[in-house]
Amino acid sequence: MDGLAGFLIAGIALTGSPGPATLSLTATGAAFGIRRGLAYGAGITLGMLAVMALTASGVVAVVLTLPGLAPVVTVLAALYFLYLAFRIATAPPLVEANSDAAAPSFAAGFALSLVNPKGYAAMAALFSGFALLPQQPAVDASLKIGLLFLVIAIVNIAWLLAGSGLTGLFRDPRSNRIVNLIFAALLLASLAAAIRP
């Protein structure tokens, strides 16, 4: 396991860098607070567990070799992210009166992970670029999944906490509009970077 430190550093860098999931977690933390954003964060985290399993098993590689499927998947993912960016950009200011507004759900977080091109690219790089136990491929894949699951859970909580620190900005209508538009633009920029050939 000589590559363990490098694997963990790369895992933190790839999963913790700004991208669609981390930016949406930050926006959720800011708009709804940590407690109400936990279900969404759990959905993203468990969705990434599914992405890791699909990547490690080779299912993603096989599916994307089917003629014409990769562009369809890319378009569907882009449409979902456009929808998320629109929801973030048009979210109303957070006030006491709308504290009952529905926070993003577990299912929304899970779906985000499944359509997040950055997640698949990061997992493919981590699974193909490191061999922790090269003589035991199944154990190697299981170990990577377990370690990355812990890293992703910690990273997601950190982004949610960072967002919750911005809650005050979401109570002022003008600041709220500016922050929402910035988050929406960053989400679209991260999508563009993720799907760029």
Average pLDDT confidence is 82
Number of helices: 8
pLDDT under 50 segments (min length 5)? none
Task: Indicate the overall shape.
Answer: globular
Q: Give the class from helix and strand content and strand pairing.
A: mainly alpha
Give the SSE order as H and E letters: HHHHHHHH
Relative strand content: under 5%
The percent of residues in helical segments reads over 70%
Main beta-sheet strand count, sense and barrel state: none
Radius of gyration computed on alpha carbons: 17 Å
End-to-end span in angstroms? 33 Å
Number of strands: 0
Q: How would you characterize the overall build of this protein?
A:
- There is one protein chain.
- By secondary structure, the protein is an all-alpha fold.
- The protein is 77% helix and 0% strand.
- It has helices spanning 4-16, 20-57, 59-64, 69-89, 106-115, 117-129, 137-164, 173-195.
- α1 packs antiparallel against α6.
- The two termini are 33 Å apart.
Features:
197 residues; mainly alpha; 8 helices; 0% strand; globular
Brief sketch in words of this structure:
This protein has 197 residues and is mainly alpha-helical. It has helices at residues 4-16, 20-57, 59-64, 69-89, 106-115, 117-129, 137-164, 173-195.
